[in-house]
Design brief:
By secondary structure, the protein is an alpha+beta fold. Helices cover about 25% and strands about 35% of the residues.
Length: about 160
């Protein structure tokens, strides 16, 4: 996997990221979320949002964002996904680690939050995220919403 590069999202990546999204519907995303994802990609602003892509030989394999709210001391993982044909190859782990490393490099960030489904909440628990709220059918008829949080700087007494 050393031939895979992590780099910032560029406007030319739009169709590749949408294709990755489409390949993950309906298990990981509801079809109606596509419009919101497209709008998100079209409005990525590097000052508050870092959206990364994992690329091999010019082909986008995975993508995911980190939205920073400096005033609140938190960041949000957003729209993380891996090409469905490449699931199980640890690309999701690599993408998540890249975003968490980025979060830890931002002064003053205390926590990272995310909203995911029942299909991936266990994956994020592996990084130390803890459920803060579960909303049945929160993303759609078969997609429960799991709001999760990771404290970046736990103290010894916690």
């Amino acid at each position: 996997m050393s031939d895979i590069l992590s780099r910032p999202y560029e406007a030319d990546d739009l169709s590749a990221c949408l294709a990755i999204f489409d390949g993950n519907v309906p298990v990981f995303f509801a079809p109606e979320e596509r419009v919101e994802f497209c709008e998100y990609l079209e409005s990525v602003d590097a000052t508050t949002t870092r959206y990364l892509v994992l690329v091999r030989d010019g082909v986008v394999l995975a993508c995911g964002g980190l939205t920073i709210d400096q005033a609140q001391g938190k960041a949000s993982l957003s729209w993380g996904m891996v090409d469905r044909k490449l699931h199980g190859q640890r690309l999701g782990t690599r993408l998540t680690l890249a975003r968490l490393t980025l979060a830890r490099s931002v002064p003053g960030l205390l926590e990272v939050v995310l909203s995911t489904s029942q299909h991936t909440q266990g994956f994020y628990e592996g990084f130390g995220f803890k459920a803060s709220l579960v909303t049945p059918r929160g993303f759609g008829p078969a997609l429960d919403r799991w709001d999760m949080v990771l404290r970046l700087w736990e103290t010894e007494s916690q």
